[in-house]
Specification:
Layout (H helix, E strand, L loop, with lengths): L1 H5 L5 E6 L4 H13 L2 E7 L18 E5 L19 H4 L3 E4 L13 H22 L3 E6 L12 E2 L14 H21 L3 E6 L2 E2 L10 H10 L4 E4 L5 E2 L2 E2 H12 L7 E3 L5 E2 H12 L5 E4 L10 E2 L2 H7 L7 H21 L14
Parallel strand pairs: 1-2, 1-4, 2-3, 4-5, 5-7, 6-15, 7-12, 8-11, 9-14
Antiparallel strand pairs: 10-13
Helix pairs in contact: 2-7, 4-5, 6-8, 6-10, 8-10
Length: 354
């Protein structure tokens, strides 16, 4: 009966939790561009900002509800969703992008992080069970911990090596538990949940002054300040442009995949080269300086994306130069608004976070 009712409506009802965050806002944007969905963005702005979704508020197919998913999600209590006729149509897809955290200060939101990735995810999965809706859950490469000595690539069958008492444990361990919860709901409750293990991603709408390398490098280059690389000239990392990441999430949603998939760029870049590319694009006078790695810095491994290529026909296609160019132009365009809202800071040198 539910399937017959769904067929009457020309657009899907899609929920994006954490939809005002970095990746979540891009999921919302691409869904609106496709024109096949009515998008319900759920966020509480704990580690995101309304500026990320301001351009979408004008569209009738976009509704925002301010809600903490740690509390039960009762869609009927939000009068603004009446136009989406959820009581008749239901929900067709859910993207769970919610995961409050602070890369710069991991002790800032530990309880909110742990609860969102446990109780909050349970509430999302209960909603999916109620509406028989498939879910794409955004996990993270942090579930692997440090790379093994014999290889820098992570395959999905590696169980990981993570410190449950470390300062980043609230994020790292709760992301691991979240995958277990997804597995339980898939096996015991019949929820069609798919897991994307996201590796280092960059692009427009990344939070500023959070120790994230690329936005911090860009901010410093715009002001002709030194760009600090924590490590040597040979220090490397990988970077996947956010549009590629979102493309993977959409392909995963349409698949029958039941196992976690690595989503990231398997190509390595010297961090100093990334900094120089940013300097060149901006014609900046910034200089690159090298300092010792920060305390508790976690070595980042690379994703083995063979399964993603084989099972959902996905691999990153956007060149690093194009991604950096688009990110720089976005940051330039919103700088005034960021400064107005107190979101722009360049007093902290860029870290080596992705």
């Amino acid at each position: 009966m539910i399937d017959k009712i769904k067929g009457v409506f020309d657009k899907k009802n899609v929920i994006v939790t954490g939809g005002a965050g970095f990746i979540g806002s891009h999921v919302c944007e691409e869904l609106l561009k496709k024109g096949e969905s009515k998008v319900i963005c759920v966020d509480n702005f704990v580690s995101s900002h309304e500026i990320n979704i301001d351009p979408f508020l004008q569209f009738p197919d976009f509704k925002f509800i301010k809600h903490d998913i740690v509390a039960p999600i009762n869609l009927s209590s939000f009068s603004e969703l009446a136009a989406f006729e959820i009581e008749f149509q239901g929900i067709q897809e859910i993207y769970n992008c919610a995961s409050p955290t602070s890369y710069k200060d991991p002790k800032k939101l530990p309880l909110q992080t742990a609860l969102t990735n446990s109780v909050g995810l349970k509430n999302v999965l209960e909603l999916a069970r109620e509406h028989q809706a498939p879910v794409v859950h955004l996990s993270s490469s942090v579930i692997y911990g440090d790379p093994l000595p014999e290889t820098k690539y992570f395959k999905e069958d590696y169980w990981g090596f993570v410190n449950p008492w470390g300062e980043r444990a609230s994020y790292n361990e709760s992301k691991r538990f979240a995958e277990t919860l997804c597995s339980i709901y898939r096996e015991q409750e019949g929820v069609d949940v798919k897991v994307a293990r996201i590796f280092s991603t960059y692009g427009p709408r990344m939070k500023m002054a959070e120790g994230r390398m690329i936005p911090d490098f860009i901010a410093n280059a715009l002001d002709n300040k030194d760009i600090v690389v924590f490590g040597g000239e040979e220090t490397k990392s990988s970077f996947c442009y956010v549009k590629d990441t979102v493309d993977a999430l959409f392909k995963l949603m349409q698949s029958n995949e039941s196992e976690p998939l690595n989503i990231g760029n398997d190509k390595e870049y010297k961090i100093a080269d990334i900094a120089q590319k940013i300097i060149n694009i901006l014609n900046s006078k910034s200089k690159i300086v090298f300092e010792k790695p920060l305390p508790n810095f976690q070595v980042q491994g690379l994703p083995d994306i063979k399964k993603a290529k084989e099972r959902i026909a996905w691999f990153p296609v956007i060149a690093i130069e194009k991604g950096l160019e688009e990110t720089i132009r976005y940051i330039e365009s919103v700088r005034f608004h960021y400064e107005e809202k107190g979101l722009w800071q360049t007093d902290t040198p860029g870290g080596n976070g992705g």
